Amino acid sequence: MKQCDNGHFYDEKRLDTCPYCQEGSQTSRTVSLDDIGKTVAVSNWEPREGDRGKTVGIIKKKLGIDPAVGFLVCVAGPNKGADYKLISGRNFIGRAAAMDIALPDDDTVSRESHALITYDTKHNAFSLSPGQGRGVTYCNDELVEMVRPLHAYDLIEVGKSQLIFLPLCGERFQWSQEE
Asked: pTM to 2 decimals?
């Protein structure tokens, strides 16, 4: 692990520069506490001047955070045991560190956009789509060639990795978008 000048830690074997300090990045943005020299996450996200005009998720705009709407858990493959948070909107699966669901140790997964999981807040529904990569995606042993609904405990297969889908939002719970 390497620590950047702003105090963020990142894996220097996988990344050339700090992913948190990249221009325009809002992921895990931190601010310094001058009193003790430590950093804490910014809880009330406010767009920076350069971010004006960029798209922000509906839930994030209302709540100030991107809460989990579901999870993927890797049950087979190089990342076995790892869990991944899904947020509203599109969640890209790929090998690159910039992907929402990054599977860096599975060299059979496309680097970017192997597959895509979408949570549609308007219809309170999840779907699985093939990505733009060359890799093939399966759901419950069926080839995914177009957008298909995703249900609890569906088994998604990308490369050598098998991921179980666990929704948080659904019929019994949905994040309130009211302030």
From this structure: 0.64
Is the backbone of residue 175 left (phi > 0), alpha (psi -120 to 50) or beta? beta
116, 100 Cβ separation under 8 angstroms: no
Cα–Cα distance list, 23 to 50, 130, 173 (Å): 10, 29, 36
Tokens of 73: 């858990």
Q: Which residues contact 139 (CB under 8 A, 6 or more apart)?
A: 128, 148, 150, 154, 155, 156, 157
Residue 85 burial (C-beta neighbours within 10 Å; 0-12, 13-18, 19+): middle
| Per-residue pLDDT in tens (0 to 9) along the chain, 179 residues | 788 887 777 777 778 888 777 655 444 444 444 434 444 444 444 544 544 555 555 555 555 668 899 999 999 999 999 999 999 999 999 999 999 999 999 999 999 999 999 999 889 999 999 998 888 999 999 999 999 999 999 999 999 999 999 999 888 888 875 54
Cβ-Cβ contacts under 8 Å for 46 (sequence gap 6 or more)? none
Give the Cα separation of 100 and 113 in Å (integer): 10
β-pair type (115-120, 137-139): unpaired
The number of CA neighbours under 13 Å toward the Cβ of 106 is 27
Backbone angles phi, psi at 62, to 5 degrees: -75, -45
